[in-house]
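Box S1 | Example of a co-folding query
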Amino acid sequence: MSVTRRHFLMQLAATSGYTAAYAAMTTLGLGAVGVTTAAAAAPLLPAPGSGKGLRVLVLGAGIAGLVSAWELRKAGYQVQVVEARERVGGRNWTIRDGTRIAYTDGSSQTARFDRGQYFNAGPARLPSHHQTILGYCREFGVALEAEVNTSRSAYFLPDAAKNKPAIQLRRAVNDARGRISELLAKAADAGALDRELSVADRQRLLAFLTVYGDLAPDKSFKGTERSGYTVFPGAAEQVGVRPEPLSLDELLDPDLWTSLIFDELLIFQPTMLQPVGGMDRIPAAFGQRLQKELRLNTEVTRIHNEADGVAVTVRHRASGKLETLRADYAITTFPLPVLAKVPSNFSPPVQQAIASTEYDTASKIAWQCPRFWETDSHIYGGISVVKHVTSLIWYPSGGFHQPNGTLVGCYNIGQAARDFTSQPLAAQFASSRQVIDRVHPGRGAALQRPVSVAWHKVPYSLGSWVHWATPAEPAYVLLNQPDGRVHFAGEYLSQIGAWQEGAALSAHHAVAAIAARVASSAATI
Ligand code: PHE
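Box S1 (continued) | Returned holo structure for phenylalanine
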């Protein structure tokens, strides 16, 4: 990808809302995927038994920490995982009835959901090609179901401030295809593409466009059944009634474009997956298997490289007692804003890289409510995109036809999320309620028991992810190497940032790097 295109996309991510950021992040990701094949990039995991007699401290029990610990233990290393929270998973956090959301500013919320209802405040979907993290689901028997990331019954709400009605996505997608096909057919028919096309290919293109855009025999677009009905066909004399096709003018609204290609983005292509019962089933599966290695409720207060090992001082949060743990190597998986607060003797450039890397944030709101989107709009999973600070309405992918469901009524990132979440919770909830009521008229009142998670306010996370401009950024390059005997891992050190797959692959990278050191020092003895 060219630098200007990359720059343009980053700008888009920085200045506009979530939908634009989606496109930008994805395209940057795709650029990176293009240069390496999975096979060439996969690091060699250590052989069983190769870590015998060696100790590794893993700092943080998010996905990167858990994967590191699991692979190290498989190879025979003696592992301890130090985690400040009382739970494993890090940003992989599923909120259920009674979950307390405590912020760094001392405020807190407690979720009140019915039994079985949950809200994935962090990761909430797994692309089918993320086979490293899915591989662990396979290995541990974590039950998966489809995560319905797009629904043609869901909506796009043009501008929440103006009173424009929401557009159903099946209309937007299919009318856009029809209109564009019609234009292209007209151009081809008028001979405008004769330089590009042979006579035979022009005929074949016209035939294709008729199918692709559902054009009338005269090559005009008169609307299509694909765009749905305002009154569906029924029994006896009940014929279907179709809406007027959307005009090109309505379709050329730039805010709509990402919605038109949303499920063509590689990371959002169906089938997407989710663990049955909550995303935290993944860390829970690791946690069960790593019970002996895990030390929860234990905060890291100092990381020190020593001549022939690492010393990590920890504070037991319950007793306040300090203890220094020693090992041959350490892997730290803390998000950088967290790591920046831990005193260490890392080299000055590494300290600088840690302190100066900016983290983004993300915030989500979840409501519990009757499933009006299923009854009113026939929406079963998927996302409505709203041009509003709350960005979207994300419908549950499971539990269809149950009386209640959890509805995600906000997912924003960047400065928009910082501004939004600096308001009182009541104002945030009111804003989400209002926009949901715009998309689902009259239903705002049905929304109950909201909770919000703003990741920059969550202790031991302090943010969501990093937007590296390029993988050549000095901080990225530096932190992908160890400092002394401390290795770094996390989704932020992968080309798949902001995904659990990136965390797992980065963990493999760190484990492989330690194993390579062990192998080479064994060879020199
Ligand atoms: N993985 C996160 C999500 O699914 C964040 C993300 C969004 C990453 C868009 C890339 C692109 O929402």
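Confidence is low (pLDDT under 50) at residues 1-24, 26-36. Residues 22, 25-26, 125, 267, 498-499 surround phenylalanine (CB under 6 Å).
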